[in-house]
Design brief:
The chain is mostly helical. It has a single domain, classed as MetI-like fold (Orthogonal Bundle). The protein has 15 helices and no strands. Helix 8 runs antiparallel to helix 11.
């Protein structure tokens, strides 16, 4: 088991290294010049050259990559090419806002999804199962930007219950903060819960086809007891993987939601960095997203190994 966990960690490290190359090369070939964006179109060639030399933009790409990767290892994210501020200071508050949003969504959506998935598996073919299946399939088929736009139309425009623009301020009370986050919260809960409910139901029903489950049914054990005491434990691996993928989406895939609601999170900061061609900022945000994703996937793999006796004891 230790060897399998070690292999997952090594694979994660190699994946991050490959991703770092792709992120650096991909952002470096973006059209536009940060020097021209910052100094304006009226800047002289001398001032443009001086700005590039000051920011290290005139160095070969491999030297820029080595310097950037070394800074990432030491925790030095560098300075913004556009504003000159420390990238760590720019990311600090925004990352906290994104983690707060993801944490609240996970706190609500994960238990709710598991409970509703178990409920659908306990009563397959009934009206409860049909409603949950139809609802989750419908929500999975709808992109998040449509759900966000629909939420704005209903709750902000027609009913005027919630603000269309998310706002975060240190002076706000707890309920004011929740009210300001309500629209992106509801949107993300709908998006991630639908997938988790469906996969929880599918994982439980897949285990229910096992021979030992059929033997328990023949002995007269109640279906509810079988699911809660036996099937759920053996389906934890796939369920944890789905939960981990959706939690990774909450951190790395909220670009559209944060943009629509102008939520001051890390994804919105990365979009602003792309618009100003602030490459170090975009690269740092992308690596944070990728690192979080890889860590969550490794945690899901470890949980799947621990929950599966055949993987825990391969001999």
């Amino acid at each position: 088991m230790q060897r399998m966990v070690f292999q997952r960690i090594i694979i994660g490290i190699v994946t991050l290294w490959v991703v770092s190359i792709l992120v650096f090369v991909g952002t470096s070939i973006l059209p536009g010049d940060v020097a021209e964006i910052v100094l304006g179109q009226t800047a002289t060639p001398e001032s443009l050259a001086a700005y590039r030399a000051e920011r290290g933009l005139d160095q070969p790409m491999y030297m820029q990559y080595a310097s950037w990767l070394g800074g990432m290892f030491t925790g030095d994210l560098g300075t913004s090419k556009a504003g000159g501020a420390s990238i760590a200071s720019l990311i600090g508050g925004r990352f906290g806002n994104t983690m707060l949003l993801a944490g609240v969504v996970a706190l609500i959506s994960v238990p709710m999804s598991i409970v509703l998935g178990l409920l659908a598996a306990m009563y397959p073919g009934t009206w409860i199962d049909r409603i949950l299946t139809f609802g989750t399939l419908s929500l999975i088929s709808v992109p998040e930007f449509f759900i966000a736009t629909f939420m704005v139309l209903i709750f902000a425009v027609n009913l005027n219950w919630l603000p269309a623009i998310a706002h975060m301020s240190p002076e706000d009370s707890f309920w004011q903060t929740i009210g300001g986050m309500a629209m992106p919260l509801i949107t993300l809960i709908i998006v991630v819960a639908a997938q988790m409910i469906r996969m929880t139901r599918a994982g439980i029903l897949n285990v229910m086809n096992s021979p030992y489950i059929e033997m328990a049914i023949l002995k007269g054990v109640r279906r509810k007891r079988i699911i809660l005491r036996h099937a759920f434990y053996n389906a934890i691996g796939p369920i944890v993987n789905v939960v981990a993928l959706n939690l990774a989406y909450l951190v790395s895939g909220v670009v559209i939601v944060e943009t629509i609601f102008a939520y001051p999170g890390l994804a919105k900061l990365m979009i602003d960095g792309v618009q100003t061609r602030d490459l170090p900022l975009v690269q740092a945000c992308a690596m944070i997203f990728c690192g979080t994703y890889v860590i969550l996937i490794i945690m899901a793999d470890v949980a799947a190994i621990l929950s599966n006796p055949r993987l825990r004891n391969p001999k």
